Amino acid sequence: MTPHILTRSLDRSATVFLVVVAGLGVLIPLSNLLLPSGSALQVPTYLVALFGKYACYAILALSIDLIWGYCGILSLGHGAFFALGGYAMGMYLMRQIGSRGVYGNPILPDFMVFLNYPALPWYWHGFDMFWFAALMVVLVPGLLAFCFGWLAFRSRVTGVYLSIITQAMTYALLLAFFRNDFGFGGNNGLTDFKDILGFNVQADGTRAALFALSCLALIVAFLICRAVVTSKLGKVLIAIRDAESRTRFLGYRVESYKLFVFTLSACMAGVAGALYVPQVGIINPSEYAPGNSIEAVIWVAVGGRGTLVGAALGAVVVNYAKTYFTSGPLAPYWLFMLGALFILVTLLLPKGIVGTFNAWRESRKATEKANAESAALEDGVGEPKPAE
Amino acid sequence: MVTKLTHDIATLSRRRWLAATAGLILGLAAFSNAKAQETIKVGVLHSLSGTMAISETTLKDTILFLIEEQNKKGGVLGKKLEPVVVDPASNWPLFAEKARELITKDKVSVVFGCWTSVSRKSVLPVFKELNSILFYPVQYEGEESERNVFYTGAAPNQQAIPAVDYLMKDEKVKRWVLAGTDYVYPRTTNKILEAYLKSKGVKQEDIMINYTPFGHSDWQTIVADIKKFGSAGKKTAVVSTINGDANVPFYKELGNQGIKATDIPVVAFSVGEEELAGIDTKPLLGHLAAWNYFQSIKSPENEKFIKAWQAYTKNPKRVTNDPMEAHVIGFEMWVKAVEKVKSTDPDKVIDALPGIEAKNLTGGTSKMLPNHHITKPVFIGEIKANGQFDVVWKTPGLVAGDAWSKELEGSKDLIGDWVGKKCGNYNTKINKCGGQGS
Amino acid sequence: MSANFLDRLRALLLAISLAVAFAAPALAGPFEDAVAKFANDDFSDTDEAIGAVATSGNPLAFPIISALQDGRLSADPDTKKVFITQADGRVIDAATGAAVDKLPDNAAAVRLNNRLRRAVEAALGGLTLLSPDPAKRIAAAQSVFKSHEESALPVIDGALAKETNKSVKAAFAEARAAILLYKSDATEVEKLEAVAVVKARGDQEAMALLTGLGNDLPPNVARAAASAIASIQSNLAMWSMVQNAWYGLSLGSVLLLAAIGLAITFGVMGVINMAHGEMVMLGAYTTFVVQEVIRSNYPGLFDYSLLIAVPLAFLVAGAVGVLIERGIIRFLYGRPLETLLATWGLSLVLQQAVRTAFGPTNREVGNPSWMSGAFELGQITITYNRLWILCFTLAVFVILLAMLRYTALGLEMRAVTQNRRMAASMGIATSRVDALTFGLGSGIAGIAGVALSQIDNVSPNLGQSYIIDSFMVVVFGGVGNLWGTLVGAFTLGIANKFLEPVAGAVLGKIAILVLIILFIQKRPRGLFALKGRAVEA
Amino acid sequence: MSVMEGRTTSALLYLDGVHVSFDGFHAINNLSLTLEPGEMRAIIGPNGAGKTTMMDIITGKTKPDEGTVLFDGMIDLTRLDETHIAELGIGRKFQKPTVFESQTIEDNLLLALNVDHSVKGTLFWRGSRDESERIDRVLETIRLTDARNRLAGSLSHGQKQWLEIGMLLAQDPKLLLVDEPVAGMTDVETHQTAELLKEINKEKTVMVVEHDMTFVRELGVKVTCLHEGTVLAEGTIDQVSSNERVIEVYLGR
């Protein structure tokens, strides 16, 4: 990627976002590891794991925002790519257990032993090597997205139809992964991980490192998204979002653009899933549940569709609310709150938190400018209006 | 006049509202003050929303009820017990997150929770890492014995195998349909049963295995297949490990297609009083369930418990079931262990628990074993028209729970022993810990 | 079949034939001893008692055993006395038949288990071969057919000679053939005739009977039996196709019912209502409430509970639908994806609300008697509840179609679908039409809930399990076309049911989903898509 | 690309015997029409005459049931999709002005420029002097230079029409299809638009669909009147407007 793409992509809010994420990515692990436990400033390990989870969700939200916010593709099956990435990582982690499983079988994971697998299924080979697993984390979701997108975009399945068939896709995967014959551990999924790259996944140091890595991945994902949306390709994406058929008549091959950005987004979701799994310690088919994917879209809507910072922020805010409200006396009511949040945000805050804030700021700027202009000169082009 | 009245009402309601708010704030303050007092915290990790709420909500209420009863008796070690309830919302990673929160943030001494195997698997690394205690109250597939987990539900040998024995001996069943939901518990149980049946001389062609997805609702084809399989001239029975929600449409279809218990009896391992409360049981008369507890069992302990429970829930029709009893036993064992070592320190309690005995509700005394499973009686009940079970058979004594199934190739040499051998997967053949070895 | 049971049956039939032949008077002593065994509350003793009573030839045998089956036989464990509560409420002593004032306080109903229930049925079957009720005679003949017990032959022969009822006669003939087939000293001609009779019966049980024959048959008979098996097999294979088709229709009707409301809200208004499933759930809970009220206040009306629930469910779900449209959806027209998200939030709220109000567990909704049970059509079993649901679905479909075609609201709805702006300028109050259309779609979902309560769980999760399937049906059939939804639902239902025996339930469902995804690529707007410029706008 | 064997016609656009029906409704019925290079043609006709559908056919949005549609004498347009046809050099302005409302006017034009339209090309695109000069020229032509940084959504209806024409210019096609360019414009704007189109016609072939008779008269070009998907009359505006059948269609019934 050429430098001008990077420089172009950094405006003020992007820079602030990057600095904050980088700061947290450094400070939280340091505070967790260096400060004595119990001190007021020390971040307890369970919070590190929690924040790491949020960071992964934020990457997922970015990937959804990239296609929905900028290209108008509402995927209600992005959880599938997230989960596929997670499974690829989970398979690596399972292979790392080696003979420390409860049955002590050096090759077969525990669930295969008690379901009497005679040998490792062919698709489990190679996952004992990290580089291979890491490649699969990106490749498998990317390939699925490419095939799915190639079929769907070429035949111009758009709007709600696309949303519904993405639901069908993730639902079909959900059913498939639930099957124990499929060789991915069925409903229990993959769990009881021990090591990642030789480090104990439960050690504080590993957790801190994974958190820092998640922040780094978030930064990289953010930069990639910014680079894409601020390039001319980003303008084409927005053009497709706003007037797909116009874009076609201008001579753009809309399906190629959609396919590119959809695949890119799926790869990002896969990476998010891969980082998520060692931090939460389990990957199981419920990650494919259609509801999960819809929920991820809500994060983006809450934060602000079409603003990358908003998407990441939305993921963190909604998930923090979920963490907060599922404990304590409000626990029985949290679904009411979650549901109400979805309704209120779509009704009252259609641009999300960041989008609304931006609009407010711009309208203020525009008013100031208009005042200044009308004082100076009436140029007849027409009165400046606030954006939309 | 009217305006004055509305004004009054408005002021009144505003005042009320203010008072209520103030009360709430005070209440919260009192609540947090109470926290400052020395209590022993007990974590409750059961889903209150989502798909598993249907089963788990009752267990949350059970623990709250047990804590209240215990506190009436003066608590434990002179301290009151304080429940900390969280909602993992039927979401497995959230189970792990909430478990972590309960142990590190709320500093609970023990957690009662989980229903599905996957939720247990999800929290297991957390309990190991943070060294805390989980009481798991549901019948499960076995093949596990962990230091930090105490399994108060049935292992396969405490439910599945006695049930099959009963059908073989008493009903002379020769042909078997093993129908289950496609997840680990039915898979493992059916694997164990298949091996067991074959060891009893049942041929492969007399065993039909069928798996369906969660929440399967269209049972026409499968019930017809069962009917067909059952009309081959040999006495046939269905062993059902069908999970929760799928049972209602399954039994409805059975009833409507006219399969009576006298023709093809169905013995279920996941259908209890709670599930039957949602079904019209008249067509199901005589179908069976195997559990370690039935509400209809007559014993002074049980009658007392049911009475107190119905009073606590203010619902004279509220039913009780097997996982509830498991919590009752587990809770009492934990209390006794804590009182024995006069501490809630997890290591001490874990070491003290094996050997602890507690009265179960069916008139016997269950004992915690070194493999962290307990001894339980096994009952076979027939469904009655009133949604209860009529016990038609029971084991002569208590059955000790096997962590590792003797019927499976991978685990037949393993035992769990946290007292002598200090591990959960001791291999009796090579005399060391670590599974099958290599 | 247990040997012990067969022994008993043999003894029983012998006793009956003796009774028929000599009309022997009842003996007192052993009968009373046998009756007293009922009081021991021990399954083996009860078993013996049943055998002894049934073979006693005592006139009280039939009342005792039928009372046992109905739970009207009670025993006093202390005095070992056994009592029959008669249908009119009077109590008699089972051993003597003498009237008793009332049951002793500690008398408890004699318990049964499945084994005993079978023994009771067999005993009653033997006692009813000569029953005046033809239905009971047929049932008795059926149990002889299954047991093919030689000792029953004289009774059957006698009964067959006297029998005038055609279907009972056929049943006796089949029972006789079954006995002859297994009778070692039957002639070859008899056996060949028997094979022909059993072959004509042609069902699963006939096949079980033939496959169960041993190897020591005369070669001619063995050949005939083999060919009979083959013919029954191919016959059954044909029927199993019919059965699959029926199951497919039945599943299709459920899908159609769940999707048809969606076809209106989604097809006519373009609103993606993710809370559609919850409307179905509300309908099911309405049924539950109606049944509860009827149970506690007007138990006689129970069989009509569904008829009462249908309009109520329509009103409840429809009213909620109108509220949703007025409160949320009307602010989101033209933003289908946002509507999707908001209604999904709404579905969470509704689910949790129902969970809070009714509890998280399943609630019991009973089947009225006219929806219970099944009947045989050829070699397939058709259950009444599925049949009624299919009829009901088609009725709803026809009514809806007629409504759209012939009523003013229908006309306005179609106008709004085809050209909203034009309709508005023609003076149609589009917002009123929107609210009513949405209410109609939701109301129909509510009606679907009434029907689904008969075959599925009534729980807060009820709706969720249908939402994806419903969307698949609508999208597959083509948006905005009710016929498309009809064809889509039945196609998916039948395809699913033909895949299920081959691939299993899970893989079958996955295959269907994948096929739909591929199908949408081929025809992005479904089977019956509207063509033309208007839909592009 | 589907290229015929040799050139069969000198016409830039050649339609012959084209049929399209939607659910039994014959939108285009045996339509035949040719457009010579450099020509400007006005298409008139009542509502539902098939004008927009004809444009849909030429630009590949709708596939005809039968008939020949040739571009440049040898390219069969019925086999190509919109993107391909646009790349061949056929530009289209929609009936309802369609611009990218949430992007600036400058970006709208930038997107329309006929430069590398591949994914890779746009991802690594860097502006060039040539491109910005071309945008400046177009802005000049459509008189929106001062508004270049405003969002297209904030333009008035007439301005959007112009922007869309500007986008056509930036696209630099051989054939422009212009659907109702003066709908909703003031008289002055209509006049200016006519002038603009005449200017454009100096270099390019243009097909204009319009209802506004004054505007068509002002263009002063050959007119084709469509009715029920087929050509009713063709000739100068005076010839066509005096044609009895045309009068009948417009005024009668």
TrEMBL record, chain A:
Listed under GO cellular component are: plasma membrane
Origin: domain of life: Bacteria
Question: What is the membrane topology listed in the Swiss-Prot or TrEMBL record?
Answer: Multi-pass membrane protein
Going by the UniProt record, its keywords in alphabetical order are: Cell membrane, Membrane, Transmembrane, Transmembrane helix
Q: Name one Pfam family in it.
A: BPD_transp_2
What GO molecular functions are on record for this protein? branched-chain amino acid transmembrane transporter activity
Is Lyase given among the entry's keywords?
A: no
Entry's localization field? Cell membrane
User: TM spans, by residue?
Assistant: 16-35, 76-94, 106-124, 130-153, 160-178, 208-229, 256-277, 297-321, 333-354
Matches recorded under InterPro entries: ABC_transp_permease, ABC_transptr_urea_perm_UrtC, LivM-like
Give the matching CDD domains: TM_PBP1_LivM_like (cd06581)
Which PANTHER family does the entry mention? HIGH-AFFINITY BRANCHED-CHAIN AMINO ACID TRANSPORT SYSTEM PERMEASE, SLR1201 PROTEIN
Name of protein:
Urea ABC transporter permease subunit UrtC
Where does this protein come from, organism-wise?
Bradyrhizobium retamae
TrEMBL record, chain B:
Checking PROSITE patterns in the record gives: TAT (PS51318)
* InterPro entries xrefs: ABC_urea-bd_UrtA, Peripla_BP_I, TAT_signal
Under SUPFAM superfamilies, the record lists:
Periplasmic binding protein-like I
Question: What is the protein's name according to its record?
Answer: Branched-chain amino acid ABC transporter substrate-binding protein
TrEMBL record, chain C:
Instruction: Note whether Transmembrane helix occurs among the keywords.
Output: yes
MF-aspect GO terms = transmembrane transporter activity
InterPro entries (UniProt xref): ABC_transp_permease (IPR001851), ABC_UrtB_bac (IPR017779), ARM-type_fold (IPR016024), BCAA_transport_permease (IPR052157)
Q: How does it sit in the membrane?
A: Multi-pass membrane protein
Q: Which Pfam families match?
A: BPD_transp_2
Alphabetical UniProt keywords:
Amino-acid transport, Cell membrane, Membrane, Signal, Transmembrane, Transmembrane helix, Transport
What does the entry give for GO biological process?
amino acid transport
Signal peptide boundaries: 1-28
Question: Does this entry carry the keyword Signal?
Answer: yes
As for subcellular location, the record says: Cell membrane
GO CC aspect terms: plasma membrane
- Residue stretches spanning the membrane: 245-272, 304-324, 387-408, 429-451, 471-495, 502-520
Q: What's the superkingdom here?
A: Bacteria
The record's family statement is: Belongs to the binding-protein-dependent transport system permease family. LivHM subfamily.
Any idea what this protein is called? Urea ABC transporter permease
From what organism does this protein derive? Bradyrhizobium retamae
TrEMBL record, chain D:
Per UniProt, residues of the ABC transporter domain are 13-253
Record Gene3D superfamilies: P-loop containing nucleotide triphosphate hydrolases (3.40.50.300)
Q: Which UniProt keywords apply?
A: ATP-binding, Nucleotide-binding, Transport
Xref: PROSITE patterns:
ABC_TRANSPORTER_2 (PS50893)
One Pfam family this sequence matches: ABC_tran
- Quote the cellular component terms of the Gene Ontology held in the record: plasma membrane
- Classify the source by domain of life: Bacteria
Signal peptide span: none
GO molecular function terms here? Answer: ATP binding; ATP hydrolysis activity
Entry's CDD domains?
A: ABC_Mj1267_LivG_branched
Name the NCBIfam families for this protein: urea_trans_UrtD (TIGR03411)
> Which PANTHER family does the entry link to?
CONSERVED COMPONENT OF ABC TRANSPORTER FOR NATURAL AMINO ACIDS-RELATED, HIGH-AFFINITY BRANCHED-CHAIN AMINO ACID TRANSPORT ATP-BINDING PROTEIN
* Record function comment: Involved in beta-(1-->2)glucan export. Transmembrane domains (TMD) form a pore in the inner membrane and the ATP-binding domain (NBD) is responsible for energy generation.
Q: Identify this protein by name.
A: ABC transporter ATP-binding protein
- Which species is this UniProt entry from? Bradyrhizobium retamae
Q: Please spell out the taxonomic lineage of the organism that makes this protein.
A: Bacteria, Pseudomonadati, Pseudomonadota, Alphaproteobacteria, Hyphomicrobiales
